[in-house]
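Hi support team,

I submitted a single chain yesterday and got back a structure, but I'm not sure I'm reading the token output correctly. Could someone confirm the output below corresponds to the sequence I sent? I've pasted both exactly as they appear in my results page.

Thanks,
R.
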Amino acid sequence: MDKAAQVLKKTGVDVSRTKLDIALDKQTFFSIDNTEKAFIIFLESLDRPLQGLHFVLEATGGYEKKFARFLLSQSIAVSIVNPKRVRDFAKALGRLAKNDKIDAQLIRAYADVADLFLLERKSQADERLKSLILRRKQLLKHQAVEKQYLETSTDKDVILSIQDFLGTLPEQIASLDKTIQTLMEADDRCRARKQLVVAVDGIGERTASTLLVHLPELGQLSHKQISALVGVAPFCNDSGERKGKKMIWGGP
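Hi R., thanks for writing in. Yes, this is the structure output for that exact sequence:
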């Protein structure tokens, strides 16, 4: 666990598209809109030092990012946790009931015992890079799907439509690649981290940019911690005299 995270008071946040359910402690609960205006009103209403709080959000398809970015902009500690870990924690405690308030309290309780890493505020370049790389991934996925359609389509107009669409993708992908590389070269921190990654045999520019965006912990954690984070570290499966086969598990 991040040493700074150990001394902060954990606050559980259950996230949905439209609202946040926040368990500040065992007795104090808030439900607010998932909007920046509501975030501001919520923080202004608190009667305790904000820098003493550590907000722990459950990953919810990206809907948690708005609040996480807002908290970071206010220099408030924040972590995002895997919902499966929270569900498994609840099952281990025998807590089967479920509603938004209960979920927020479970996240808070889980945060008290879990290994958490504090998020760092992303630079504007990091935010742009993540959006561009995500868009590139989307286009490549569309390209693969359309090629499959093309192989099985028999209607002339459908075939022409698919071919027209596929014809526009290479230029769009190339344009994104160029913008991504330009951004990485223009940002000193991105450029320095990229140079470290591409120094590894077999890793090129595209792989490096993807790794740096999706694994911002690179350079901060050990190789063993990174392996566990991405879900490729082998874990023991022993009990008593039985020596089980080591297995890998999904990351956090």
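A quick pointer for reading it: Residues 221-252 form one domain. Let us know if anything else looks off.

Best,
Support desk
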